Amino acid sequence: MAEGDTILRLRRRIADALVGDKIAVSAPNPRGRAAGVERLDGRTLERVDSRGKHLLLAFGDLVLHSHLGMSGGWHLYAHGVPWRRPRSAAWAVLAGERAEAIQFGGPTLRVLPASRLAIDPQLARLGPDVLADDLDRDRLLAGFRAADQARGIGDALLDQHLVAGIGNIFKSEACFAARVDPWRPLGDLTDADLAAVLEAARAQMLDAVATGGRHRFAVYKHRGPCTRCGGGIRSRGQGDANRTTWWCERCQV
Ligand SMILES: [Zn+2]
Fold first, then answer.
1. Distance from Cα 228 to the centre of ligand 1, integer Å
2. For the chain, what are the domain ranges?
3. Neighbours of ion ligand 1 (CB under 5 A)
């Protein structure tokens, strides 16, 4: 699953490769044609934005909206370089003057009018982007306080309406860094506890952006004892979606 750090890196890479170019857009796979991506053919890519796990490519009054989920991907290639996946699998091919960006699959790929961004159900209800330059920490905290206080912090961190961009890796890693047990209910945590977890997620994800995602994880899929205290690392499904959480049963309280 691509978390916010992956999407932010992708945003920058696509922007560097294609922004300002007039883009030849094609849809080799029928799913891309159904999504209407060919409507963008010949337009100039003006800007690439991200909101949590959502990627938004602005082509004048139309926007290409992508969410990769568990299965989707974007590949970038210089012209003439062989692709790692077959052309027929590509939902969208965006060919600029210097490079091409290829989109493969995922739960969301669609073209929508820029004027709809502010009212679109998928986008308008997103919480603050944990990686935003101008992150409003008061609003972020207020959102967590307005949520069901019986929810475990590890579960709440995945709720994109509360905070956008955090996935399974960084929910576990952030709770570990802040020494907070991911099973503790929100109502049991102080504002300082909550802020510490959210700041840890942001710091770790920004670090992953800077290092290109080559990140060593402390608890996520970690085998062996805790590197901090020697205690046992446990994992168990959490929340309605039963997404696995990893944590140290000794040093996270
Ligand atoms: Zn530990």
1. 5
2. 4-124, 137-248
3. 226, 228-229, 231, 248, 250-251
As to burial, measured by CB atoms within 10 angstroms (0-12 exposed, 13-18 middle, 19+ buried), residue 64 is buried
CATH H-level superfamily of 4-124: MutM-like, N-terminal (3.20.190.10)
In angstroms, how far is CA 46 from the centroid of its own chain? Answer: 22
Q: Are 46 and 59 in contact (CB under 8 A)?
A: yes
> What's the pLDDT at 160?
97
- List pLDDT tens digits, range 195-219: 999 999 999 999 999 998 677 899 9
Pull the structure tokens for residue 227.
Answer: 């590197």
CATH class belonging to 137-248: mainly alpha
Determine the distance separating the centroid of ligand 1 and the alpha carbon of 180, expressed in angstroms: 11
Per-residue pLDDT tens over the stretch 125-172:
999 999 999 999 999 999 999 999 999 999 999 999 999 999 999 999
DSSP single-letter state for residue 68: -
Output the CA 214–ligand 1 centroid distance in Å.
22
* Segment 3-16, tens digit of pLDDT: 999 999 999 999 99
What is the C-alpha separation between 92 and 33, in angstroms, rounded? Answer: 8
Dist. CA 227 → ligand 1 center (Å): 7
